[in-house]
Amino acid sequence: MRRANRQTPAPEKPAATRLVRRVLLVSPDNAQRRLLAAHLHRARYEVLEAASVADALQLCQRNEPDIVLSDWAIPGQAGTESGLDLCRAFRIGERRNYGYFVLLTSAQDEDDIARALEAGADDFLTTPVSRQDLLVRLAAGERILRVEDDLRASNAQLRSALDRLRDTQAAIDRDLAEARKLQQGLVKQRSGRFGPIQLSLLLRPAGHIGGDLVGFFPIGDDRIGIYALDVSGHGVTAALLTAQLSVHLSGSADQNVALRAAQTGTDAVSPADLAHFFNNMMLEEMATDTYYTMIYAELNHTTGRLRMVQAGHPHPVLQRADGSVRPLGNGGMPIGVFERPVFDEIELVMEPGDRLLICSDGITEAANPAGRLLGDDGVEAILRTNAFLGGHIFLESMAWSVSEYCRGERQDDMSAVLIEHLAPAEMVSLPGR
Q: What positions does the domain Response regulatory occupy (predicted)?
């Protein structure tokens, strides 16, 4: 049975429910032991007695006393053994709980006190010992032991709680790992080729799961829809919203809101109309403070004509075949914040050799250790530096550059869409032919 913690009773009237502590008396003086034992029994202590250091150590091993009262000098087989020797052995012995050690001495000086404290003694009693002094010293020991018992119980509770938290965290990590697989599966194709147009996608959450989403789907025979979303926040809430949005932007015509001809009487919803549809859906159907930024583009891969809406997303960056680079758009408002938002509509024609990069703010707002953001200038520099790379090789190089810039301390999800209008292959004449 574990020893419970009770308040130490007043010496004159011990409480009937006070815990019985075990006290070891160590003294070669039988009369002194009998007197002290009588006082202890009256105070409802369990008493063990030993006349030598050897007997005391055996009792300590078998019974683990809570308190030890020991004479300073204890005659033994090798002459005079010290209570300090017993105290040192008591301290290095294996115990489940702390033991309180009191030395009995007829005289004390500063050197004796220093030696006793160094040996591990907790308190002193001057002999002959009065009952009042004895019970006062024991009351002090009781307080120390109660504190130790409380700390031990608290530590046990903390260990149990930590074990439960570790088990819970392990279960959460397993669930998040599976959720990550499911979320990565939302992007069914990481690349696509439509005539001269090549699409490459990058999706890299900062944690297990994230709030970014990129993708594309065909619209008829000559057009494709391309989207990039970034939900505010991180974690489960953002991931759930991206999952729902992926359903609305899937390739299935009966689920994809961009392909619902009934809304406009055409074969596809315009980019601006799609942004307004999502904004109304967020405000009217979803009771949440979450919002997101978006770029949605409709690209004719036969003519290279591109219509695009920007809703708070970072500026797309266009790199022409001659190497010139410029950001596009004025920004626009995010989706799910304003009842009457203003979105930015962009139109351009991509010529052979051109490419368009759409990034999330996990790239543009990546910060170095000094807190400086990569920004649009940094993205432009990456485009210029990697002008000879294309497709997924370019996106991986860009991801590496961003990670190096922020020294691996990336705090946000990272996603990107690279649209390339591939130039026709040139004929090369070989020497001698």
A: 22-142
> Alpha helix (H) ranges present in 266-374?
271-285, 361-364
Distance CA 339, CA 333 (A): 11
Q: Using DSSP bridges, classify how beta strands 292-300 and 305-311 pair: parallel, antiparallel or unpaired.
A: antiparallel
Q: In this predicted model, what pLDDT tens digit does every residue of 341-359 receive, in sequence order?
A: 999 999 999 999 999 999 9
CB 321 within 8 A of CB 352: yes
Q: Are residues 150 and 58 in the same domain?
A: yes
Please check whether residues 152 and 199 belong to one and the same domain.
no
Closest by CA to 285, choosing from 336, 248, 234, 230, is: 336
Query: 68, 79 in Cβ contact below 8 A?
Result: no
**Range of lowest pLDDT (135-139, 252-256, 414-418):** 252-256
Q: Report d(CA 86, CA 115) in Å as an integer.
A: 13
| Side-chain-side CA neighbours of residue 421 (13 Å) | 21
199 with 336, same domain: the answer is yes
> Residue 25's beta-bridge partner residues?
49, 69
Domain with residue 139: its CATH number is 3.40.50.2300
175 found inside a domain: no
- SS3 for 349? strand
Helix or strand or coil: residue 184?
A: helix
Same-domain status, 288 and 400:
yes
Q: Are residues 337 and 402 in the same domain?
A: yes
**What is the value of pTM for the model shown?**
0.61
Nearest to 302 by CA among 220, 189, 395: 220
Domain assignment of residue 130, yes or no = yes
CB 383 within 8 A of CB 419: no
